[in-house]
Amino acid sequence: MAASTTLKHRDVRDQPGFGTMACICLIVLYAPILILMIWSLNSGSIVTHWEGVSLAWYGVALQNEEFHSAARNTLIISVSATFFSTVMATMAAIGMTRVKPWRGLGTSFMVINLPLMVPEIITAVATLSFFALLAGQLNLNFGIGNIIIAHTVFCIPFAYMPIRARLEDMDLTLENAAADLYATPWQAFRRVTFPLLVPGILSGMALAFIVSFDDFTITQLIAGPGQTTLPLYIWNQIRRPMTPEINAISTLLLLVSILFVSVSFLIARRRK
Amino acid sequence: MASAANPIEAVQMRRNRWLSLPAVLFIAAFGIGPLILMLIYSFLKAAPYGGVEWSFTTDAYVYFLFQRDIFDDTLQFAPDFLIIYLRSFVFALITTAVCLLLGFPTAYFMATRPPAQRNWWVLLITIPFWSNLLVRTLAIMFIIRDQGLLNGFLIWIGIIDTPITLLYTDFAIVIGLLYSYLPFMVLPLYSSLEKFDFRLVEAGFDLYATRRQVLWRIIIPLARPGIIAGCLLVFIPALGAYVTPLILGGGKHLMIGDLIAQQFGSGRNWPLGSAQAFILMAAVLVALLFYVRNTSGKVQHGR
Amino acid sequence: MASGQTAIAAKGVSKLFQGAGQDTVVALDKVSVAIRENEFFTLLGPSGCGKTTLLRLIAGFDFPTEGEILLHGQDIAPLPPYRRPVNTVFQSYALFPHMSVAQNIAFGLEMLGKSRAETQARVSAMLKLVRMEELRDRRTSQISGGQQQRVALARALAPAPKVLLLDEPLSALDYKLRKDMQIELKRLQHETGITFIFVTHDQEEALTMSDRIAVMNRGRILQVGSPRDIYDRPSERFVANFIGETNFLDGEVTGVSGAEARVKLADGAVISAGLPEGLAPAGRVSIVVRPEHARLVPPGAPADLAGRLETAVYFGTDTHYHVRLDGGGAFTVRTQNSRGGGAGFAEGEPVGIVLEPSAAQVLRD
Prior knowledge:
The complex is a heterotrimer.
Chain A: H1 2-9, H2 18-39, H3 56-63, H4 65-97, H5 105-117, H6 120-138, H7 144-169, H8 172-180, H9 185-214, H10 217-222, H11 230-238, H12 245-269
Helix pairs in contact in A: 2-12, 3-12, 4-7, 4-9, 5-7, 7-9, 8-9, 9-12, 11-12
Chain B: H1 7-15, H2 21-41, E1 44-46, E2 52-56, H3 59-65, E3 66-68, E4 75-77, H4 80-111, H5 115-130, H6 133-144, H7 149-156, H8 170-194, H9 199-206, H10 211-222, H11 224-239, H12 243-248, H13 256-264, H14 270-295
Antiparallel strand pairs in B: 1-2, 3-4
Helix pairs in contact in B: 3-14, 4-8, 4-11, 5-8, 6-8, 8-11, 9-10, 11-14, 13-14
Chain C: E1 6-18, E2 24-36, E3 40-44, H1 51-59, E4 66-71, E5 74-75, E6 86-89, H2 101-111, H3 116-129, H4 145-157, E7 163-167, H5 175-192, E8 195-200, H6 203-209, E9 212-217, E10 220-225, H7 227-232, H8 237-242, E11 247-257, E12 260-265, E13 270-274, E14 283-289, E15 294-297, E16 305-314, E17 318-325, E18 330-336, E19 350-355, E20 360-362
Parallel strand pairs in C: 3-8, 3-9, 6-7, 7-8, 13-20
Antiparallel strand pairs in C: 1-2, 1-4, 4-5, 9-10, 11-12, 11-14, 12-13, 14-20, 15-19, 16-17, 16-19, 17-18
Helix pairs in contact in C: 2-3, 2-4, 3-4
């Protein structure tokens, strides 16, 4: 029979054509990014005309004063948001896995994951209204702190996920064993739970950092003058006549994302 | 009660619950607080230069569907906003369908690779998942513009002689959405297929099913929770998309996200924007409820 | 061997768990037991019998719903695990994956605030005790299952606990290694002189290693005794059934003298059977006879029971004869094979069964 001959040559799980589809998927996902990156090496000054390979536009981008200030703002915001969100997410993950179940547990979990479910544009306009009210009624304006607060809110669930996963994977008998060997709860945490949790925390930090670093929608709506971040800087560039400089900056942003995703991924994988 | 725990440990385990308080309070104050504020705003009067006046009115919701005639002050049905919502809905639906069509075979292919290879596939899909959306959208724009690579290529091989306008069209928006959210489909599908017990496939073959029958009768029904999760993860952000239509639609071809942002910007009608946001939020909640109803307690593992 | 002093005791200990829904599960039901100093004591029973729960109560990972846990006469039930001079070898070993072998062993000593020099000396002594000196600085993920087992033992013994608890520690090892570790454990117990409380569901393991065994079922301790007591003189049907193969016979008590009863069997034969402590039976009773405590005789020879041989199954070292009794019921006789022996009993032929003196034992139920 024809069917049995094909079975002999292929894994029973194979479905014809699925491999091709997977390759198409990869091409669809990577071709635009790669093209963008390749064109960032164009030496000409017109975006659409290839003249030769050079790093000239990276030089132009890196010497640009506006780029410097955007990069500075971005770093201040993402590092702060990463720090605050990771600290809170770590505490919450411990507080929600190493606890006697109580009535508020389900609600807490929903609250922490809420920022993932609300469309970003809604979060953006809601946060805008909120800060406008604070500024208008209470004369409260934290400047760049506004952006840090908004970023921290949606970074918490991203930092929370890998930390919680790590805590849930952890064998509880290890903590029992520590207690059995005369470690007080605090000693057990410091000597056993925390060291084993570090990869989860690093992974969470990396994710929180990327999410904050890349954010455009929320930042665009709430950023005041002088609070331009790198994604906002790119947006401002798009609206002018485009030069390959924008490709160079975009490539740098992509490389940062790729670096952090890979690091987070490898940390998470290495646990086995 | 039934299990009397040790007093010391019980206190310890109960005390831990306070650790989640900072995160919960922070999100409640700066995440939920603004949402509640917006709900309030949607029932207030718009101030002439942005912001609100503190007097109650349902105007925002009325104006969502109607327009007040300037002369005789009567309400007339004005479907402009409704059309934008329907457009967004259709775009999101098309995006979800095409993503599923491309994403399912990909996820299945990944799940059937040897474990060492699988990790690399997951990394390859994860990278675009976390990459800057603005930059990725920009890359699409770069390719499909009039002087872009796609038109250049088509002219070069002689199919066309003048560039076709792709940028700032509905087509561009859907392509952009598709490109943005494809990884959101693949990853949940993969995680559900990865747990799939492939001995069931062998059992299917043993009972005379063909490859396609195995796919439709065994694999797809059991992968349903993953399929629904993937569709939702694409549909919800696609419905509320902001960046994609902003860049690829060029401001003329609106989706809900841009409409809302517009009310808070040049439109200067915050209550209307808030109302529009809440109508979008309601649509999202309906989708989430659909998800909860379809995944809780039903087919999860082989019966 | 056991010196007689009580090391640890449970007094009327019950443990209830909240089960699914509203019903509570009784994991331990008013258990009382006294474990002696320097004893190798085994809790034996099927899974879910409460043996691990009792161990966890002694370790302090759970707390009794009622009752007391006494260590040298002092109630330790309210103490958290880190205040109890009791250490555990976990079923999964629970070695800290981020520490070396030596760091694992040193952990308990450090927590007790021992000096660095003392800790190092003790770690070295422990490594020597379990013969692992050369693996001192290895990561715990880089050593084999048997070696992990030794590290877990060394780690638990290092703080010199009053009592060592072992929760099915050999269950993850393969057969050969398990046999080696059984001998190793006995050696360690002798050398350290620490009371060992060992939990297992493996009857053979329990019989070969223990000074005394407590057989548990459904949250209760059914019988406590030496391996020989438990095997030869089971007092309850469950104990007889759980440990080894057994024949059950029905009979009627015709008279009692001391610890022996005269029992009339169904087909009229009268035998003498041992009585469990404190039992004065009358009327119908069940008695047990181990298959190797009976032998077959040709028909016509004087016998306690008569029947027909159904099957004879050859097992290498011995042969099992399954006999259908004339008075109803089945009986298995196990006979050791000897070279050239094997007086041929043919399947389907009538046979007689002779019980060895004091082979039979009356059950409590």
